[in-house]
User: Which sequence fits this backbone?
């Protein structure tokens, strides 16, 4: 079991087994990088994390929907204004579709500004005859397919912090500085999206939103005074995997005296590191951020209750999001006992669906991909299981990009197997492209309209 709060400290995880950590060749350099992080300013503030927690509590109560999405892994080579803006655009488009289509407020959380590490099922990967240590993210080592590039370098944690700070700065400017203004709803439709069927569908929806705004203005409502029409909140999240980094950014909040991991608003524990007696559960039990935990197909009801007890013993609504990633074929069978276990323990849980990670396949040519249909299939199964259990299906957790890539198959604009290699750019898992993401948002909004009343 995780230790009690009397023995917790930002370092207490070090006495537990921490899976999926790099072996730094120079431990003194790793300690120096952690010490450096401890002197840096926090990336996010405790008050913001509490604001997100409260928004997530609203979702549990059925008054909202969580859209958590972004890259599988961010890259040190892609710190560009355009790319960040494109990611934001697709997130704004998707949330416009969901808010308008399902008339529910959307809580937006990016896998962004810190998603630089990856857990791996196998310690090695093979390229032809060459076997090299598996890629674990730019915060650990380089992605080149050589043994030398894969040597862990602790200074990368500081570089990851710097890139996260720059990304977050841009994100704050875009979301608060006019770009996310609802009057810009047409502008978020990128050219390569606008020409597709879902892009045209979006244009029609944007026209409707514009008319609705004009209608409200004609009724005498002062739209300029409505903050929520002119700026949005986009919160940050990443997998809290590399505990040296997370410890380095943990600060005591001056208002409440509580500890917060100030590397992101929300941190999640991955499927591979959610052991009840492991270092990750120990570390995150002591910080007050909203948390996520991924649950794969082997998860038992007892583990769900154990995670709820360890991470949210006070049963604070919004503290804990459980992200089921069961697979399209199995979600309706595997999820119900887990939903019941949390309900019987009176644990407030935001149930979300990751329809990506249990639906990864390889083509005959060996390319890692996902089928759009399987993704939708898992989402529908997840909604059906939640509705049967009288639980609000609270959100989706996606891997997407604002770019015109070809990494996942299908969607209304059908990406075919022979097209996959033309723009396959991900450093890790295949992502939905902007058109597929928009298509998904429309289908999701339709599904949500069928919620039992
Ligand atoms: C991920 O979200 O990129 C991931 C590795 O997920 P999981 O822990 O669910 O496998
Ligand atoms: Co992934």
Assistant:
């Amino acid at each position: 079991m995780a230790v009690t709060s009397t023995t917790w400290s930002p370092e207490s995880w070090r006495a537990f087994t921490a899976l999926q950590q790099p072996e730094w060749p120079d431990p003194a350099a790793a300690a120096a990088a952690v010490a450096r992080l401890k002197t840096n300013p926090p990336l996010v503030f405790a008050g913001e994390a509490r604001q997100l927690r409260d928004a997530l509590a609203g979702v549990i109560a059925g008054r909202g929907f969580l859209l958590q999405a972004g890259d599988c892994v961010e890259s040190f080579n892609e710190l560009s204004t355009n790319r960040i803006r494109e990611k934001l655009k697709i997130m704004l488009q998707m949330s416009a579709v969901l808010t308008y289509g399902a008339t529910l407020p959307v809580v937006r959380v990016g896998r962004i500004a810190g998603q630089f590490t990856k857990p791996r099922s196998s310690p090695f990967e093979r390229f032809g005859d060459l076997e090299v240590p598996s890629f674990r993210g730019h915060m650990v080592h380089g992605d080149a397919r050589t043994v030398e590039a894969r040597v862990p370098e602790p200074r990368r944690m500081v570089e990851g912090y710097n890139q996260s700070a720059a990304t977050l700065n841009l994100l704050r400017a875009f979301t608060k500085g006019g770009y996310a203004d609802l009057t810009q709803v047409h502008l978020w439709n990128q050219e390569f999206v606008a020409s597709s069927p879902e892009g045209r569908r979006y244009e029609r929806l944007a026209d409707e939103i514009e008319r609705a705004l004009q209608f409200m203005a004609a009724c005498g409502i002062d739209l300029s005074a409505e903050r929520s029409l002119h700026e949005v909140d986009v919160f940050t999240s990443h997998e809290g995997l590399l505990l040296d980094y997370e410890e380095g950014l943990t600060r005591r909040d001056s208002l409440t005296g509580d500890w917060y991991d100030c590397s992101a608003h929300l941190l999640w524990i991955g499927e591979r590191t959610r052991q009840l007696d492991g270092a990750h559960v120990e570390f995150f039990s002591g910080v007050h951020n909203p948390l996520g935990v991924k649950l794969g197909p082997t998860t038992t009801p007892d583990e769900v209750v154990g995670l709820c007890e360890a991470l949210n013993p006070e049963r604070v609504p919004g503290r804990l999001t459980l992200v089921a990633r069961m697979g399209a074929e199995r979600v309706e069978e595997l999820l119900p006992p887990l939903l019941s276990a949390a309900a019987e323990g009176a644990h407030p849980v935001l149930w979300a669906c990751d329809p990506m990670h249990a639906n990864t396949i390889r083509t005959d040519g060996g390319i890692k991909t996902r089928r759009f249909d399987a993704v939708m299939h898992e989402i529908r199964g997840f909604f059906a299981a939640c509705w049967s259990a009288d639980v609000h299906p609270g959100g989706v957790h996606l891997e997407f990009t604002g770019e015109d890539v070809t990494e996942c198959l299908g969607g209304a604009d059908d990406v075919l197997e022979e097209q996959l290699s033309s723009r396959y750019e991900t450093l890790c898992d295949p992502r939905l492209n902007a058109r597929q993401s928009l298509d998904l948002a429309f289908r999701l909004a339709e599904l949500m309209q069928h919620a039992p009343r």
The chain has a mean pLDDT of 95. The two ends are 40 Å apart (CA to CA).
